[in-house]
Amino acid sequence: MLLALDTSIIVAGALAGHAFHPRAIVWQAAIYRGEVQAMVCAHALHLVEAERAGADVFLTFNPSDFERLAAGPKPVVPPDPPSTQLA
């Protein structure tokens, strides 16, 4: 699976005290272990970059920012409790 990561996932995974840290770090660990492939998308071109790369999902903690624009990869919020299984 190819994930397009919103910067909200990177920030949450990097900061142990962040409210979404547990939900983000499981994805970052899966990337590190080579279980999934990922790309990081930068602000204004998030969905365009993800679509061009052929991303399967767009992982974000801000789905409302992208749902109305999504024609390609579906914006998905990491599940709680933390898991790399997507519904």
Features:
87 residues; 3 helices; 32% helix; single chain
What does this structure look like?
This protein is 32% helix and 16% strand. It has one domain. The protein is built from three helices and four strands, in the order βααβαββ. It is an alpha/beta fold and 87 residues long. Strands 2-1-3-4 form a four-stranded parallel β-sheet.
Number of strands: 4
Cα radius of gyration in angstroms: 12 Å
What is the helix/strand order?
EHHEHEE
How are strands sequenced across the largest beta sheet? 2-1-3-4
The general outline is globular
The structure class reads alpha/beta
Oligomer: single chain
- Amount of helix: 25-40%
Low-confidence stretches: none
The domain count comes to: 1
- Overall average pLDDT: 81
Per-chain topology:
Blueprint: E1 2-5, H1 7-14, H2 21-32, E2 37-40, H3 46-53, E3 57-59, E4 74-76
Parallel strand pairs: 1-2, 1-3, 3-4
What's the quick description here?
By secondary structure, the chain is an alpha/beta fold. The chain is built from 3 helices and 4 strands.
